[in-house]
Write a structure and sequence with these properties.
The complex is a heterodimer of chains A (about 300) and B (about 425). Chain A has about 300 residues and is mostly helical. Chain A is built from 13 helices and four strands. Helices cover about 75% and strands about 5% of the residues of chain A. The chains are: A mainly alpha (about 300), B alpha/beta (about 425).
Chain lengths: ~300, ~425
Amino acid sequence: MDQKAKAAALFKDNLQNFLFVLPAFSIFCIFYIYPFYKMINLSFYDWRGIGPMHFIGFSNYQELMGDRLWWNSIGHAGYITLIALTFQNALAFALALACDREIRMKRFYRLVFFIPPVLSEVVVGLIWNWILNPETQNGQYIGLLNHFLYASGFPQLVHNWLGDPKTALTTIAIVNSWKGFGWGFIIMLAGLQTIDKQLYEAAKIDGAGAWKTFTNVTIPMMLPVILVVVILTILGCMQVFVLILAMVNEGLVHHTDVPVTRIFSAMQNTNRFGYACAQAVIFGMILVSVSFISKKLSDKAKQV
Amino acid sequence: MRNLGIICFSLILIVLAGCSQPPKPSNKIILWHWMTDRNDTFQKLAQEYQQQTGVEVNIQLFAPSDAYSQKVIAAAQANVLPDIYGVLDKKSIVADFIKAGLVTDLTGAMDADGGQWKNSLFDKALADKSFEAGNIYGVTPGIYGVPIDVTNEQMLYNKRLLAKAGIKTPPQTFDEFVRDAQALKRVGITPFVSGWGELWLLDCFASNYAFNIMGEDKIFATFRGQVKYTDPDWIKVFSIFAQLRDKGVFIDGIVTKGNKYAEQDFALERAAFAFNGSWCVNVYHDMNPNLDYGVIPPPPISTAYPLKIWGSAGSSFVVNGQSPNKDKAIAFLKWLTAQDQQVVLARETNNLPSNKQALVDVSPILKDFAKGMDQSTHPNIWPLNEDPSVSEAFDKGIQDIIIGDKTPLQVAQEVQQAKDLQRSRGSI
């Protein structure tokens, strides 16, 4: 085969390969790359969603740097994430450990623990709204929680949980943890089941007690899984939105604002699409940074 | 090589299929709406219209209204709007749609036959999508929308609960309202509920009293930046909420309550007074057909200026400025707002009709609501509106007062700061 024919065959092969990849590549470009580019591009404009766009350079970003409500909302999301990282994941780990043992009805428990995550956030929000309802009718508390507290002799604990700035965010964070712990539970349970049982037997032969086995076998073997759960928890909780909307509507003033509700508000209430895009860019950068740091820590932990 | 040819040909077909063709006139018009409760009636009327005229009207529902609003904006950007649609946004956004050529000027059609169509509709409902000469939006003066129904927001009172507290007539003044609220509390009844988790409803109540305390000239002067929000009259407006809070008038959790929940509270007799729109007649009927209630404007706090309520077109449709079926779309809207069709809509959906002649056939409570149209106003018919960021600070500030986090003076100062910030940005 001469050089020309070889080159033609190679070109044909490459073209064929390229054509096969083209549909997937086009979809990726149209639905991921282009919107991403457009969002960054729009963040440099003053635009109300329709009509003329005015290029304003970094003005949106400058304003965002001094936007107290925006930074508070990041703090609120951080608080919800912190509660999830501690309370939610500790609960998930404890329940996964319990279900990993030979206990009765463990399949039933697995099913029950996985119900909250598969429920829609709107449904969860509405259910908890009813549980936390602070109102009374004919002298009876309508909300299940206040009714229970009152009936069991703790009337001093009856409270407007979502209407008080001191308790609203924590209440939302706990409901968010209730909804989310099932994911961590399933992943950790799967992780626990991959640990070689011989390691436990070896520890037992070496005279290790339950606590020593837990700290020297279970925890080190589970570390990569725990770090995955931590990263997923951070990314999931920082973007919490629907649950808040379902529980407190447009928010308890600004006490329950999180970044996504601020972005939504900028687009929906004030029609500032450019500013909303600038918020989205900064928020995206924060999430990428957090993921990057978590990944580095994860790699380091694996080496240890 | 044959395979390669087939692949290339398929790709070309896919690309060509994606290219948009200019729409051609047809005997079918498409209407997008967001009104779940009216969809069945719209569909029925569309079928009737097709039987009468041979023109098919394809009614497409996209709910809820927030999602609808975003869909319309996205469709406008992609230039794929239907023949008839609604712009649910602020007047400034409506103006942007008009300036982009996406809305037809209906003035000619309205004025035809001696203005027969225009005169059949409530003026204030028409004003919702009308632009006067010299408007601040730079829009050519004209009528750009067709109101399908009208709404206004007023105070509802539960007759049975008021009687239980020994109250014989609903309050006529703000002081009487506060006194009645105390009487209700004494017998264990929650005085007042509203869906103030939705900022617009709270804004509506506050602006009713702003009109009553300082009159519209001063309100618009504030929007223009000539009067500060720290003015004593504005402090009086903010103080209303502090006073009602201190007297325990509000239901618990009012600032996070969606209007659907508030409607449920009033319908199930958990509160004696409510602040809601005229669509509530339909909602309350579904929730509690035996509910015995009446309607009054919010009781005025001052005699200085008349208290104005919000009232305007409940829902309006516009005709796509780029539709090849403009004439057919206009003819359908004219038919839809004629007396017979409006009577059907009012009867089946319990909404106030936009056609004045259709009022004869509505329930007594809707007739009471309709009386309020005489003293109504609406942000969509004001010569100018407050900057949305300032409005957000205003409404959130009132929520802060209600939960006891801030004083009226603090809120007034913060709203003024938001105003100053927007002025310095040059957006006002």
